[in-house]
Write a structure and sequence with these properties.
Organism: Podarcis muralis (Wall lizard)
Strand order of the largest sheet: 8-7-9-10-11-14-15-16
CATH topology of the largest domain: Rhopdopsin 7-helix transmembrane proteins
Number of helices: 22
Number of domains: 4
Keywords: Cell membrane, G-protein coupled receptor, Glycoprotein, Membrane, Receptor, Signal, Transducer, Transmembrane, Transmembrane helix
Distance between the termini: 151 Å
Membrane topology: Multi-pass membrane protein
Family: Belongs to the G-protein coupled receptor 3 family.
Number of strands: 25
Pfam family, one: NCD3G
Strand content: 5-15%
CATH class of the largest domain: Mainly Alpha
Length: 799
């Protein structure tokens, strides 16, 4: 067994970092990927609980983002170091190929085994630390290719869920003009269409190694202009290296051409990252402020930050660090002739903007970290069981890493995991923050597999409601794709509370649509309340008339023995005044929220009291007529003149009205009701009259009494009687009939509280007409002309 110190020494000897200036002149930020590999290998080699008698090492080759170099270096990995041959090299070193086949670099881990001086069988496996292209990912069952990233299908699902969450259904797609971009468009289009999301525009970026080609620049200008003018505000970006670079250049060209700002909501795939290359100094990452992207789930790895702080640019073991240091800090070391500032080695990595270097382990670096441990655990299990082939152990690997995450592969040899949703907050100095605002966990139960905290998202300052959409309903255009439609307003009373709905729907009965017809508002109650100006005015008017009637009644009581009060049956006069007082007061029953008791009392009390008042007027008129007829010699009418006759008329007429009201209350009485439909924005709280026929019978009977009184009074108005009231009764009945004849059409043409106000006004007006026409002349004589209130003066006036 080797000691930990021995393992550390051997580890230093077996780390080979091939110097590549091209690598760092292109993507200096990716140096963290290398460092995460170094960090993970060191941790394994320093851990006595795993591979205690084995030392891991590695070699790195750059692919230069070139297919030819990728294949060349792949052969280098599996061939002799000094000669590339398409065959394996057997010897003391047994190798495992570890690499990312897409973009950045190729590397392999190699181990030194010593088991009783016998060498083990040669083994080779490939592991990628990001998602593969669909063509590569179609692995056959015997393949040894493993993917240290979740299935890309999960990412498509996450994009759809994100767009649906924010109701972004009018989006664009930005890809590179190659097979990979077309595959992305095809797969994403299928899922978006199934969920009703329309792809309004697809921008394909033509890639080229250099940007000095006139044709390419012209194409970029045209595309930048197209982006600035389109009404699509949400773009889904397939963020591989070429797309990232091309999109940044497009935004720069748009700014240089003084176009409209290309401020979009960018939704990027998991490969998105900000990296500053030497020829990208003019690029402005502020265009991506507030963007959202997916990222392979990662957690904080303890020890990585101190590891970065201890980096030494003068280390000879690291062939990359000097080039990185010069690119990142814009300086040169003393052994290089340059006019630039010299590097001291004391520069602080934490002072670099995130586009150059991040002190927090990125998701790509986290995948590399887990990949190293996956190899180490698989080797540990294989050696523990004296296995000869790594494949079964790697396929069945299951462990918890130092960050607490569980690492294992599914049946397709893909990492079983999810994605984080990142909100990018950028700053003018090219620094930025990655803010985790949500996650996609395919292993979680349905409904909780996608989550996002919208409150902590930082949006671009120009962000608003994105994409044209229908606030009403959609009417599809014949012969056009599903996303081509006309917006049609919802019918009256209907709403569309979501954009791009195919059909409108009605609000509930107690709600009504707002002006935009996209939201239901609760209806307000409509009834004549004491708090409303109209209710207060009518209540004060009723009280004023009641007080006036009480005053008149008091005057008549005080002067009850005077001739003008005693004339034409004093008891009838009192009965009429009391009934008028009650008529004014019963109008208060109509104000306020309808209740069962008030609904039953409103019309019945009003009908009976008014019948008493009108029948009293009729009795007064008949008394005048009978008194005149009784003065004729030999008349038989004298026996009808008296109190008994007038009392019988009042009681008889009132009894008929009371009988009608009793039948009404017993058969189909009034009750409180809610009218939801008469007014569009209000619920009418009303007294449903129950039987409309009984209600009109009450009104009809009162009208009949008033008409008879008017006719009798009209013919008796010129009778030569000293105290003849027929003239005043005629005017009072004329007012009464006029008021109630106009009441009927007004009652039928109004709604809500105004129906109640019309009836109250009719009660007050007709009652005030009787009070004014009959009693005002008498009160004038009693109060202001008392000398005329005597038999002598009345006889003189009559003569």
């Amino acid at each position: 067994m080797r000691s930990v110190q021995q393992k550390q020494d051997r580890s230093r000897k077996t780390h080979h970092m091939h110097n590549s200036s091209i690598f760092f002149s292109a993507v200096p930020k990716n140096y963290q990927h290398v460092l995460s590999l170094v960090f993970a290998v060191n941790e394994v080699n320093e851990n006595p609980n795993i591979l205690s008698n084995i030392t891991l090492g590695f070699q790195i080759y750059d692919s230069y983002c070139d297919a030819k170099m990728t294949y060349q270096n792949t052969l280098n990995l599996i061939s002799h170091h000094r000669k590339t041959i398409p065959n394996y090299k057997c010897g003391k070193e047994r190798s495992m190929f570890f690499g990312r086949l897409k973009q950045i670099f190729l590397a392999y881990l190699f181990i030194k085994l010593k088991n009783n001086n016998k060498t083990t069988l040669f083994f080779q496996h490939s592991i990628t630390y990001s998602s593969l292209t669909p063509a590569v990912s179609k692995k056959d069952p015997i393949s040894s290719l493993y993917q240290m990233a979740p299935s890309e299908e999960h990412q498509y699902t996450g994009i759809v869920q994100l767009l649906l969450y924010f109701q972004w259904k009018w989006v664009g797609i930005f890809v590179t003009a190659d097979d990979k971009g077309e595959t992305f468009v095809k797969k994403l289009t299928s899922q978006l269409s199934q969920n009703g999301i329309c792809i309004a525009v697809t921008e394909r970026m033509v890639t080229n190694r250099g940007f000095d080609d006139t044709g390419l620049i012209e194409k970029c200008q045209n595309m930048a202009e197209s982006l600035s003018k389109t009404n699509v505000n949400v773009f889904v970006v397939n963020a591989d290296k070429n797309t990232k670079t091309g999109l940044q250049w497009l935004l720069l060209i748009g700014r240089m051409m003084s176009m409209s700002p290309i401020n979009k909501v960018w939704v990027m795939t998991a490969d998105w990252d900000f990296s500053s290359e030497p020829y990208h100094k003019d690029l402005d990452i502020q265009n991506f402020h507030g963007a959202l992207s997916f990222a392979i789930h990662s957690s904080e790895v303890k020890g990585f930050h101190p590891f970065l702080l201890n980096l030494n640019p003068h280390s000879e073991a690291d062939g990359f660090i000097r080039l990185f240091w010069q690119q990142a800090f814009g300086c040169q070391f003393l052994d290089v002739e340059t006019e630039e500032e010299f590097c001291t080695g004391e520069e602080k990595l934490e002072s670099l903007p995130g586009a150059f270097f991040e002190m927090q382990m990125t998701s790509q670096s986290y995948s590399i970290y887990n990949a190293v441990y996956a190899v180490a655990h698989a080797l540990h299990a294989m050696l523990k069981k004296d296995g000869k082939e790594l494949q079964p152990f790697l396929r069945n690997i299951l462990f918890n890493n130092s960050a607490g995450d569980t690492v294992f592969f599914n049946e397709k040899r893909e990492l079983e995991g999810g994605f984080d949703i990142i909100n990018w907050v950028t700053f003018p100095n090219k620094s930025f923050l990655r803010v985790k605002v949500g996650k996609l966990d395919p292993q979680a139960p349905l409904g909780s597999d996608f989550s996002i905290d919208e409150k902590i998202i930082t949006w671009h300052q120009s962000f608003n409601q994105v994409g044209p959409s229908c606030s009403y309903s959609r009417q599809r255009k014949e012969g056009e794709p599903f996303c081509c439609y006309d917006c049609t307003p919802c019918p009256e009373g209907n709403i569309s509370n979501q954009t791009d709905m195919d059909n409108c729907f009605q609000c509930q009965e107690d709600q009504y649509p707002n002006q935009e017809r996209n939201h239901c508002i609760s209806k307000k109650e409509n009834f004549l309340s004491y708090e409303s100006p109209l209710g207060i005015s009518l209540a004060l008017l009723a009280l004023a008339f009641s007080a006036t009637t009480a005053l008149v009644f008091g005057i008549f009581i005080k002067h009850q023995n005077t001739p003008i009060v005693k004339a034409n049956n004093r008891n009838l006069t009192y009965t009429l005044l009391i009934s008028l007082l009650l008529c004014f007061l019963c109008s208060l029953l109509f104000i306020g929220r309808p209740q069962l008791l008030t609904c039953n009392l409103r019309q019945t009390a009003f009908g009976i009291i008014f019948s008493v008042a009108v029948s009293s007027v009729l009795a007064k008129t008949l008394t005048v007529v009978l008194a005149f007829m009784a003065t004729k010699p030999g008349s038989k009418m004298r026996k009808w003149v008296g109190t008994r006759f007038s009392t019988s008329i009042v009681l008889g007429c009132a009894s008929i009205q009371a009988s009608i009201c009793i039948v009404w209350l017993c058969t189909d009485p009034p009750f409180p009701d809610l009218d939801m439909h008469s007014l569009p924005e209000e619920v009418i709280v009303e007294c449903n009259e129950g039987s409309a026929n009984m209600f009109y019978s009450v009104l009809g009977y009162m009208g009949l009494l008033a008409l008879v009184s008017f006719v009798v009074a009209f013919f008796a108005r010129k009778l030569p009687d000293t105290f003849n009231e027929a003239k005043f009764i005629t005017f009072s009945m004329l007012v009464f009939c006029s008021v109630w004849l106009s009441f009927v059409p007004s009652y039928l043409s109004t709604k809500g509280k105004y129906i109640v106000a019309v009836e109250i006004f009719s009660i007050l007006a007709s009652s005030a007409g009787i009070l004014g026409c009959i009693f005002s002349p008498k009160c004038y004589i009693i109060v202001f002309k008392p000398e005329l209130n005597s038999k002598e003066q009345l006889k003189k006036r009559n003569n």
